[in-house]
Amino acid sequence: MVTESVNTRLMDVSQLAMVLAMSIFYALLLLLAVVVYRRSEKQSEPFLFLKLAGYLFLAAFTFRMNGFPLPAGLIIAYVLHRRAVFNRKAKQTAILLGALLFVIGLYPLDQSIDRMLYSRSEIATYLHKDLNPAEDGFNMMIFTGQESALNIVTEKEAEGLELYEAMAESEGIDAVPGELGETYWYLQLHQDHDQDRFRRMVFEVDPQGRYLILQARGETYSFKTSERFQALFQTKVSQSAE
Q1: So what's the pLDDT on residue 80?
Q2: How many whole angstroms separate alpha carbon 119 and alpha carbon 113?
Q3: What residue intervals traverse the membrane (predicted)?
Q4: For the ranges 12-26, 153-167, 227-241, which has the lowest average pLDDT?
Q5: Contact, 131 vs 164, CB < 8 A?
């Protein structure tokens, strides 16, 4: 389906979300290392704190094979622990806490953070809040299910700017009313955007331009358009049909 293939990248995780997720992970790892070091009975051993942190990191490390997480680091940490001479109990505790981090790490924290930062159900996530035509270019193409182009507008045209601004007025809704049936139009948007994943998108549009539907990776997000967008959209479709 055209929308699914084009919109695949929309569900990617932003760099900011990945950095925040990794920061939380390493902060938690460091905190647990401090707890183990402070609370465990210790024998004199050089660089013990760093070794405990290393056991934690190894045990929490995830190796993925075909997307399936494997506790490779946990196995390595256990083998090293068996060979340890000093502070075996403290190291064992570090391994157990690392295993807990491994389990916690199975939860897609970066995706959750990304959705908090960039709500998929808000049109503002995908469009420019304050479009500057001098710096931010775009083009919109309206076409049928057979992918034949009907009309193209850009930021260089007054009607193009108005259509983009009207599109930004759309509000997120849970779902499009069922009685609409199949959608008949597509609106493909190419735009300059600071995030690559939002530079190209395809929305499904009902015949009257009342609803926008964004589909990607099995997820669907629906938006109700403003009356201004509906009027502009119908005008563009009517002009193309003449």
Answers
A1: 84
A2: 10
A3: 16-37, 49-80, 92-109
A4: 227-241
A5: yes
Quote the CA–CA distance of 219 and 177 in Å, as a whole number.
17
Cβ count within 10 A of residue 130: 7
pLDDT at 112: 93
Determine the pLDDT at residue 181. 62
Is the distance from CB of 216 to CB of 157 less than 8 angstroms?
no
Q: Which amino acid is at 183?
A: T
Listing DSSP states for the chain in one string gives -HHHHHGGGGGSPPHHHHHHHHHHHHHHHHHHHHHHHHHS-----TTHHHHHHHHHHHHH--EEETTEEE-HHHHHHHHHHHH--S-HHHHHHHHHHHHHHHHHHTS-HHHHHHHHHS-TT-GGGTS-SS--TTT--EEEEEEETT--EEEEEETTSHHHHHHHHHHTT-EEES---GGG-S--EEEEEEE--SSGGGSEEEEEE-TTS-EEEEEETTEEEEEEPPHHHHHHHHHHHHHHH-
Query: What pLDDT, on a 0 to 100 scale, did the predictor assign at position 27?
Result: 92
Residue at token pair 């035509």 = 133
Comparing CA positions, the residue from 137, 69, 151, 145 lying closest to residue 104 is 69
Residue 77 has a pLDDT of 85
What is the C-alpha separation between 179 and 28, in angstroms, rounded?
Answer: 50
The β-bridge partners of 171 are: 224
Which is nearest to 163 in space by CA: 194, 133, 135, 195? Answer: 133
pLDDT at position 15, please? 92
Q: Is 118 left (phi over 0), alpha (psi -120 to 50) or beta?
A: beta
| pLDDT greater than 80 at residue 151 | no
Q: What is the per-residue pLDDT for 65?
A: 76
